[in-house]
Amino acid sequence: MPSLRFPKQARLLTPRDYSGVFDQVTARVAHRHLLILATPNQRSHARVGLIFSKKNLRRAVDRNRVKRLVRESFRHQTTLPAMDIVVLGRKGLAGIDNARLHRILDELWQRLEKKASGSGQHESKTETGSR
Fold first, then answer.
1. TM segments (predicted)?
2. How far is 98 from 81, CA to CA, in rounded Å?
């Protein structure tokens, strides 16, 4: 049975780790409620960092729920290339239920993987006008 942990090796831990992603973005996938930025790393696995501000997710319970779901979704992505990834929340994220958030994240991970492999030529946005 695979480990259910989310080890330190899978996380961006320091401000320097986050700055590296923001300064050298090579892949960007957007959704109405989420933005994922990524850059290749020198490790053998992907790492993720999360940024969900009080401005966009007012209540701590909402921020914690979304972070938990993003971490869980990331943990199940075994085919992501060696990248440092930052997931940012946007307005309206608190109103999304868990099942829909999982579907959105699955689609974003697939698009990120496609972009990282070089087959994605331009950024496309989904659900930009619908809710």
1. none
2. 26
For the chain, what's the residue count?
Answer: 131
CATH classification code of 10-115? 3.30.230.10
- Per-residue pLDDT tens digits for 96-131: 999 999 999 999 999 999 998 874 444 444 444 444
**Conformational region of residue 127, where left means phi above 0, alpha means psi within -120 to 50, and beta covers everything else:** left
Query: What distance lies between CA 118 and its chain's CA centroid?
Result: 19
Q: Residue 89 contacts by C-beta under 8 Å, 6 or more apart in sequence?
A: 33, 34, 51, 52, 53, 56, 57, 63, 66
